[in-house]
Amino acid sequence: MQPIQQNATRSNAIAAGAATAIVAGVMIVQAVAGSIISFFGNLGYAAGSGSVFSSLNGYNPLVGMFQQFTLSVLPIAIGVFLAFWLVVPLAPSLRIGRVILRSVVAAAIASALSLVFAIFLAIGGAVTSAGPLFGNSFPAPDGMPLFYSIVGNVQSVFSTFLSSTPLVVLAGVLVWLWLAKRQAPDAA
């Protein structure tokens, strides 16, 4: 493994950007498609109940899509880019086993970054929901909800790792094949 300074090249950044575009593009399409399906499902359910408040709840999937983007797509995309650019770059000279291994490492790094995002937001949510800032001198977050939130986020990140790893491996292999094709001399 090379030092990060040697890996920080323009060609590694291009390969990392291509892999990131594949991963982020697929994850965004999945999030939008899931939100559309949930939106129409919730809208149909709300129309059946006849309540104005229930019809407003039909928009919850759109909020969920934004939340999924900030907690999953964005950190995974940033993690994949940084991993393939600086830590485990893809090169056409690698064998397929190494490409897959590097892709799994990139997925792990991306999931770890997703965990950092989630824990940061959990701590921020615990502090902001602790009560008025000066009404209680300073907010003292209740430890148990924060603990449960962090445990839930860790579980969610493991689930994200399991679901995003095949996509990151596929993106790594596709970019590796693209790099090999670009490097191959023209046979024409």
Quick summary of this structure?
The protein contains six helices and no strands.
CA-to-CA gap between the ends?
36 Å
Radius of gyration: 21 Å
Percent of residues in helices comes to over 70%
- Strand coverage percent: under 5%
Anisotropy-based shape: globular
Main beta-sheet annotation: none
**Number of DSSP E strands:** 0
The number of domains: 1
Total helices: the number is 6
SSE order, one letter for each helix or strand: HHHHHH
Explain this structure to me?
This protein is an all-alpha fold. The chain has one domain. It is 80% helix and 0% strand. It is built from six helices and no strands. It has helices spanning 4-7, 10-49, 52-56, 60-87, 96-128, 143-183. α2 (10-49) crosses α6 and α5 (96-128) runs antiparallel to α6. The longest helix has 41 residues, at 143-183. The model has no long low-confidence stretch (mean pLDDT 80).
List keywords for this structure.
188 residues; mainly alpha; 6 helices
SSE layout:
Elements: H1 4-7, H2 10-49, H3 52-56, H4 60-87, H5 96-128, H6 143-183
